[in-house]
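Morning, I've got a small favour to ask if you have a moment. Here's the protein in full, and shout if anything looks odd to you:
***
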Amino acid sequence: MRTLATLLVCSIEVADGVTIGACWDGGPTIGIHVEMDGRASRARSWPIWNEAWDTPLISVSRESFERFVVSRLDEPGVVDELVGLASA
């Protein structure tokens, strides 16, 4: 059974006035939030759980969490999708 061990948070400024934040409590998903023009909204959840092993896909550390989030944001179209969801 999973237990809350820590809360990992990171934020990345992707453009002037646009920040993407991610938070993870060690569970199966990462919450993704977009802040634009001083207003924050939840945009999406990213899966982070390996069901076969019943463990996270990454180690539970700030460094691996930040690397995971940054690598996802570097994927083509991901930032535009998140900003679009937050704008809707």
In short: The longest strand covers residues 39-47. Strands lie at 8-15, 18-24, 29-36, 39-47, 49-50, 55-56. Residues 73 and 79 are 6 Å apart (CA to CA). The chain has two helices and six strands.
